Amino acid sequence: MKLLLNASSKTSTQKVTTKAKKRSRYLPCYQYGYTKIQSKSKQYQRSITEASRKHGVNENLIKSVITAESCFKIRARSHKGARGLMQLMPATARRFGVRNSYSSHQNIGAGTRYLRWLLDRYKGNMHFALAGYNAGEGKVDRYGGIPPYKETREYVRRVMGVYKTLHGKKEVSAYGSSTAQPKTVGGLKKTRADYQRIWKQQQNKRKTASQSTQPLSERRCLEAVPNHLSYQTRLKRSGHGGRIWRRYYNLQTGENLSHVMRKTGVHINTIKRMNHLTPQSTVSAGQQLLVWECRA
Questions:
Q1: Rounded to whole angstroms, how far apart are CA atoms 86 and 98?
Q2: Residue 50: active-site member
Q3: Choosing from 59, 69, 218, 255, which is the catalytic residue?
Q4: CA gap 229, 263 in Å, rounded
Q5: What angle do CA 119, 121, 123 make, to 5 degrees?
Q6: pTM score, two decimals?
Q7: Cβ atoms of 109 and 57 closer than 8 Å
Q8: Arithmetic mean of pLDDT over the chain
Q9: Each residue's pLDDT tens digit, 23-62
């Protein structure tokens, strides 16, 4: 009887140790190495390449977003309702003409198009574009940079980590191909001019990194507003010195929040939150709804 108990206890402890080993070996998708990420993206490579060429977005940036969003799971769905490889929200899918969010080709095409739109909006700033992809461009405009949300900041860090993994030690660009650091010709020793050039490059990198965290200026607030909102909404400035820029949509007869969402591209939940609307609130013709905000 004692032998049987000892044998059963040994098997149970072995099972526990194997489970613990499996848990310890688990790595989240954004920590995968170069080879594993490329192998997981292989079946979608054709759609990624086509979207990259069509919209002018770096292939590795597309793969990095997919890695952080869904880990290349085509049927992925979040608790907020985002679907597919690039986790498109229903409003974003409708905005870019997607009929089936679980179609890899449609999902990658719309997600890449949205990325390009965000990159153009923020003048090629990848950190701002990724923050807008995660939290919405309205939040980036409101806070003048990456919003102070733990989830959004972690998301940007993860995507940029995967992006650097795919690029190796090369300089990265959201639009074009990567370019390597300058090397000395013929293996000769670096001269003083070489060190000065490298020092200037490092200073420029630090300067651009510091600028990415600075708030939007008044000029950038003017440039950040989408073109379709310029003629559909009315601008109001408030706050000390008029540093808060807001755009309001004037509700027409027979319109509701769904009509406003389709016209402005702002999600209905964002409209409710910005205007402090509750489920019991009602809207009427002539009411002004806040749809965009920027703090200069």
A1: 12
A2: no
A3: 69
A4: 9
A5: 65
A6: 0.55
A7: no
A8: 81
A9: 556 788 988 999 999 999 999 999 999 999 999 899 999 9
Q: Which domains does the chain have, with CATH numbers?
A: 29-167 (1.10.530.10), 218-295 (3.10.350)
* Whole-angstrom distance, CA of residue 21 vs CA of residue 10: 16
Query: Does residue 254 have a pLDDT over 60?
Result: yes
The three-state (H, E, C) secondary structure of the chain, written as one string: CHHHHHHHHHHHHHHHHHHHHHHHHCCCHHHCCHHHHHHHHHHHHHHHHHHHHHHCCCHHHHHHHHHHHCCCCCCCECCCCCECCCCECHHHHHHCCCCCCCCHHHHHHHHHHHHHHHHHHCCCCHHHHHHHHHHCHHHHHHHCCCCCCHHHHHHHHHHHHHHHHHHCCCECCCCCCCECCCCCHHHCCCCHHHHHHHHHHHHHHHHHHHHCCCCCCHHHHHHHCCHHHHHHCEEEEECHHHCEEEEEEECCCCCCHHHHHHHHCCCHHHHHHHCCCCCCCCCCCCCEEEEEEEEC
Give the residue-averaged pLDDT of 213-232: 68
Query: If you search the block for the tokens 């030690």, which residue do you land on?
Result: 169
**CA distance linking residue 9 with residue 277, whole number of Å:** 60
Q: Is 260 exposed, middle or buried (0-12, 13-18, 19+ CB in 10 A)?
A: buried
Q: How far is CA 134 from CA 88, 123, 130, 141, 292, in A?
A: 10, 18, 6, 13, 17
The letter for the amino acid at 43 is Q
Of 102, 105, 134, 97, the C-alpha closest to 118 is: 134
Number of Cβ within 10 Å of residue 38's Cβ equals 14
User: 263's torsion region: left (phi>0), alpha (psi -120 to 50) or beta?
Assistant: alpha
Q: What confidence tens digit (pLDDT) does each residue in 160-174 have?
A: 999 999 987 454 556
Q: Residue 101 is encoded by which pair of tokens?
A: 């969010």
Both tokens assigned to 259:
């009509």
